[in-house]
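Question (not urgent): is this output format expected?
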Amino acid sequence: MKKALCLFCLFVCLACQRKSEGYMDVFSLLDLDRPGLEQVRASCEAQQWDRASRELLEYYRTRQGVYIPGQDSREASDRDMLWANDALKHTFHVLEDPVWNYGRDIDWEYWPVKNIEMRVQLHRQGWWTPLGKAYCSTGKEKYAREYVYEFRDWIKKNPHRSFDINQQGTVSSGALDIDSPNECFAWRPLEIGIRLLRWPMQFALFLDSRQFTPEFLMEFLRSYHEHATVLMQSFSPEGNHLIHQSSGAIRAGICFPEFKDAEVWVRAGANNLNKEITRQSYPDGCHFELDPGYHIGVIDSYNDAIQVALRNGRLDLFPPECLEHLVRMTQYYLDYRYPDGTHPCFSDSRRHDDLADDALLKDISGYCDSPAARRILWFATGGEEGEAPDYKSAGHPDTGFYCFRDGWFDANIIMPVKATERGMWHAQPDFGTFELWAYGRKLMPDAGSYTYSGDEKIEQERAWFKQTARHNAVTLDDRNYDDPHPEVLAWRPEAEKGVQLLSVRHEAYEGLTRRRSIAFVEEKFFIVVDEVRGEASGHLTLRNCLGEGSVSETSPGVYVYRDGDAGLGVLVAGPYGSGSSLETGWYSEAMHEKHERPVIRTDVDRSPHSGAQLFVTVLYPFCGDAEPALVWKGPGCVSVNGKNYSVNY
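Got this back:
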C-alpha cells in the first residue's frame, strides 16, 4: 500500500512538472514587461507557474485597450443556435449545406464528398463562433465545454507537420491533391490565416466561462503562437490567399500584443497588404482574378485589417494611397452590384458569399474624402447620407466589366456584362456573357460554378458548369472558347438617340472571330447582336439562359418568360437556315446547389464559305401584364410594340 502511494505521488509530481514546463514554454513567448503583467512576471520569477497562469487569465479577462473585432457581437441568431446545437452532436456546418456528423470521437479527416473546399473549410472551424454566441446568449456552460473539447481535440489530432507548400495548392490554383496527407488540408497557409482571424473573436466570447481555465489559456496561447510562427514561414507568393493570410497576421499581433513576436507579425502582414493592393488589382480597381466574389472577398479582408488597426490606434500601418485604392475597388464593385446586395455569379462567384453589407461600405466610405467615397456612403446609408451616383450605366474597358442600368433600385433594369481576359483559376471561358435583373428578379442568372476541385466526379461537375455552352454565348460545336484577347470596339454609356452601346470582339476559336454588340434602347430593352466571321466550320449555337420561371413560345423565335410579377419577352433571329428551340439547363448560386432552368437555343451550320453570320436577340423585361409585342421584320430591323428599330450595331 505504501509503495502504491509512493508511486501515485511520484506520478502526480511528474505530471505537475510536465505541466509547469509547459507553462514555462508559454510564458517564454510573452513580453512580461508590458504594463499590466507585473504580477504575472513576479510569479514567473518565483517559478509559481500555476499562480502565474491564473493571474494571466485574470489579466486577459480585465484587459483594457485592445479591441478584438466582433467582441461585442454576442447575440445569437436562429442560425447561430442551429449551428451551435448541431455542434454539440458533432454535426458541423462546414458550409451552409450539406452538413455531416463527424462522430462521437471526432474524425477530422472524414470526407464523404471529395470536394476540396469542403475538406479545407472543416479546418476553418466556422461553427465555433456560433457556439460562442450561443454561450453568451444563454449562459449555458455546455456550449463553452463543447468549444474547449473540440479545440483540444483538433489540436491533438491535427499536429503541424511540414510539407512542401509549393506542391500543395497554396495559391488560388485549386491544385491540392485529394490524396495529400491531412496536414496539407489542416495546415494549408490559407486555413492558418483564417484561423488567426477567427480565433480571437472566439477567445473573447468564451473568456469568462468556467471552462476557460488557466490550463486552457496556456493551450490556446501556445497553439495561436504556433499558427502565427508557421504562417511567417509559409505565406503564399500571390493571390487572394496571401491577402487573407496577411490580414490574419495583423490580427494576431494586434489582438495579442503580449507575444514578443507580435510586432513582427503586424509588420509582415501590413507590408504584404500595402504591396499587394496594387499588385493584385488594376488601376481602375478591379481585382486581377476577374471574379466578383473574390473581388469583394479581398475588399472585405482589407477592411478587416484596416478596422482592427483603426480600432487599436494603428491606422498608421496603411498609407493614404492604400485606403484610396480600396475605395476605388469598392466603387468598381458597386457599379455592377444588384439592389439586394448580391452580385453576378460570374466565374466562381456564389450569389450570397462575401456579401458587401452596409457596415462594410460605411467603414470604407470613411477612408478618404472623394466622390467615390461619398457615393459609397450613399449606398451604405440607403441614400440618407453621401451623394447619389451621377451616372447609371458604368463600364471599365481596361478590365472588362460593364453594367447597363436605368437606376439603382429593385424595380430597375440591370444587365452586368463580363467581357474580360480569361483571368486565373477561378475564371471561366465565358467572354461576353451577361446576367439580367429586372423588377426585383434575376431573369437570366449566370451558370455559376456549383463546386470547386476534388475527385473525378467533382471535377466533372465543375467542368459542366464552366463550359462556354452553359453561358449566354455563341459556341462552335459546343467547344469552350480559346483564351480571349478582347478588343473594345465601342463603349457608350451615355445614350445617343436613345441607345447606349457596348461592342466587343475576340477570337473565339482558331479561325472564328466573334463580335458581340449590346444596345440598351431607351432604357427599356436590349438588342444583342452576335456576328461571327472566319474560315472555321462546324455547328453554331447561341444560348439565352433563363431563370427558374416558366417559358412559352408565342410564335416562331418569340418567347415569353415569367418569374412572379416579372417577365421577359425574347425574340431570337439567327442566320439563314437557323432554328430555335428550348433545352433544359442548370445554374448554381451556392456550393453543391443547382436549379433547373429553360434555355433558348438557336442553331445553324457553318461552312468555310458561310461568310459573316448574324444572330439577333431582343430582351424586353416587363412587369405584370405589360407583355411586349416583338416581331422580326427581316434583315436589319425588329419591331417592338409597333415601332421599328435598327439592329445594325
